[in-house]
Design goal:
single chain; Rossmann fold
């Protein structure tokens, strides 16, 4: 685990965001105060409509806030020009999305190299960098495959490699496991933990408690405000993978019995409701 700096990578003070809805205004973020340190692994949870996706868009400079302040690594984000915002997104912030957002007609290596193209890096150099990052995420043998030839977990690994190829300070992952099965989800969280171990600030937007439990801190939103904010002892994805594999073995053994028998399942994790706070460490 990387040492977390006391200096904030992200600092929000009294942050507000509203959207015009015809004659009405929808107030989504209502005075958010939040510090996230350099090298932290944090999850942001909340029900649909709680403001977590809007908060991610503001953090990623995809949307502007209306009131308050936002500092990214000491730089004030207020009144940024679109050119400066694009520069920061290009070099300081990496994005990972639930639906991967890979270019369908480009292979895995070309998808990973794409951000380097926009930075003007020569083709030979960016192809080498892309190959190195695919190796880091365990996909060097899939470099020439198109997105349709990849599994969901492989596609998400390509997306993570693409997000990391520019050496961002912050990695924003919006429901990165939402389209994946449990075992593949734990593999992705193990990879994100390794990204954080290299000093990158990783922020995961999720509605899944078991995924949030694999981070070091959970921030829970309700109605555009922080309801609670806790540091926790992270769970080990490897242990979760082992439990899932054991469940599959036991279930398969029972299903092969000569007479109908109720499935015997190993104890599974209990996913508390999204608005239930974890116990204090």
């Amino acid at each position: 685990m990387a040492e977390v700096s006391r200096a904030p990578m992200i600092r929000l003070r009294n942050l507000h965001k509203s959207y015009d809805m015809g004659a009405n205004s929808l107030h989504v973020l209502k005075g958010i105060d939040l510090d996230i340190g350099k090298g932290e692994l944090v999850s942001i949870m909340g029900a649909s409509g709680s403001g977590k996706s809007t908060l991610m868009n503001v953090l990623g400079l995809l949307d502007k806030y209306d009131e308050g302040s936002y500092e990214l690594d000491g730089e004030e984000m207020d009144d940024l020009s679109e050119t400066r915002a694009a520069q920061l997104r290009s070099v300081s912030i990496g994005f990972v999305f639930q639906s991967f957002h890979l270019v369908p007609f480009k292979n895995a290596a070309e998808n990973v190299a794409l951000p380097l193209y926009y930075q003007g890096i020569p083709r030979r150099r960016r192809n080498q960098i892309a190959t190195d990052y695919l190796e880091k995420v365990g996909l060097s043998d899939r470099a020439g495959h198109l997105p349709r030839e990849l599994s969901g977990g492989q596609a998400q690994r390509v997306a993570i490699a693409r997000a990391l190829v520019t050496h961002p300070k912050v990695l924003l992952a919006d429901e990165p496991t939402g389209a994946l099965d449990s075992q593949t989800s734990y593999d992705i969280l193990k990879l994100l933990q390794s990204v954080q171990a290299e000093g990158v600030t990783v922020i995961i937007i999720t509605h899944e408690r078991d995924i949030a439990n694999m981070t070091d801190r959970i921030i829970h939103l309700i109605d555009g405000q922080i309801d609670w904010d806790r540091e926790i002892k992270r769970h080990d994805p490897a242990a979760e993978i082992g439990a899932a594999e054991a469940n599959e073995v036991v279930t398969a053994t029972v299903s092969g019995a000569a007479e109908p028998t109720a499935p015997i399942l190993l104890p599974e994790r209990v996913r508390p409701a999204a608005d239930t706070a974890p116990p204090r460490p």
